[in-house]
């Protein structure tokens, strides 16, 4: 039952207490999917969302698409939603992953995920978020056990021994055995329940738009890693793709402010011409990128869905310690017991990676603390390029000891540390579910890391 309270003011002004088995605060894709599943399982459910369905299904509301894995498609089939989605679902037949730079183009090597390796079914489907919402709302309207209140905002949930009572800004109160918060990153009920979160912002912005192109995409999803972040073209129905462009937060506003022709030019520079002429159609959206984790999913009479949890079910295991060391052509620097005075480095060229490299960020902080001001700085596009330049005596660099272990062992490079300053170290951890046995791929990864660590140990011994 779909109850659009924006068109029913009399209902909004009446104080009525209704009782449900479950109430869901948040009627987006996660909340409405859960509401439908519970209703079809025989429970009386109310789903409350702060925004009108007319708004959230409009083409201008949200330009993003979602990749639906096989299990998600089966879930929608069971809920009676898939037949509404299928006409707007684009199969993903292949995924290509590459990297490169804007001016130089893509590297010659790439990863290829081919659906034929797992059978005849596609790897998944891409569907515009607005179509997923429309299909869910249409199915909800035909489900007698589901009441959809929109627009309506849950102001508070008050639990007791038997139930929880919800106060809604539509001047009504609801009671339920369980309340579920599917409110996303900004959750009123989660905050009221005292469920803590952790997170941080990345210095990146996601730019999203729909791109029309001359040639068919053949169901191929492209992921192109650039120094500023991933640049993805995801296949949509017809000769269209969804652009997901990750850009530095400081630079993103300038790209968003470009006129249509200039913006199309920047897209073409990054993506190339294999789809023919490309043109952005419709609005451009931008989304600041951040990580947001709830520490727990549950409180009395309350459960969270949709927010990723970092709770007691996830453990962090120390994986390895890495050291950032200086490297130079053998004999270039005067060392004492593997250490070099920081002031002697200022006469040399410093070879660096792009500023977003995590290794470079760690090294930069240490060099600033040591007062190192190099005469020149050369930015190179890969660790291999830096090692080659250092071997030729073109400058010095600070890199991961793991990255140069073989070259140091062969005598092609020398490592050094900064005299009078602590080692430049960082630690890596692996996150896994408690009591979960490692998969074969995880065991293989751990074995590779162990081999690398042994090589770095030998290299460290040469530094002293």
Structural description of this entry:
With 464 residues, the chain is α/β, with parallel strands linked by helices. The protein has three domains: 2-88 and 124-196 and 295-304, FAD/NAD(P)-binding domain, CATH 3.50.50.60; 200-290, D-Amino Acid Oxidase, subunit A, domain 2 (D-Amino Acid Oxidase, Chain A, domain 2), CATH 3.30.9; 314-463, D-Maltodextrin-Binding Protein, domain 2, CATH 3.40.190.290. Helix content is 26%, strand content 38%. It is built from 13 helices and 27 strands. The protein has helices at residues 9-12, 29-40, 53-56, 70-78, 82-85, 129-141, 188-192, 252-256, 260-271, 358-369, 383-391, 401-409, 440-463; strands at residues 2-4, 17-25, 45-48, 65-68, 90-92, 94-101, 105-106, 111-114, 124-128, 146-150, 154-159, 164-168, 172-181, 197-213, 220-226, 229-236, 240-248, 278-294, 298-299, 302-304, 314-328, 339-340, 349-352, 376-379, 396-400, 414-418, 424-433. The strands form four sheets. Strands 1, 2, 3, 10, 11, 12, 13, 19 and 20 form a nine-stranded mixed beta sheet that branches. Strands 6, 7, 8, 14, 15, 16, 17 and 18 form an eight-stranded mixed beta sheet that branches. Strand 16 (229-236) and strand 17 (240-248) form a beta hairpin. Helix 12 (401-409) crosses helix 13.
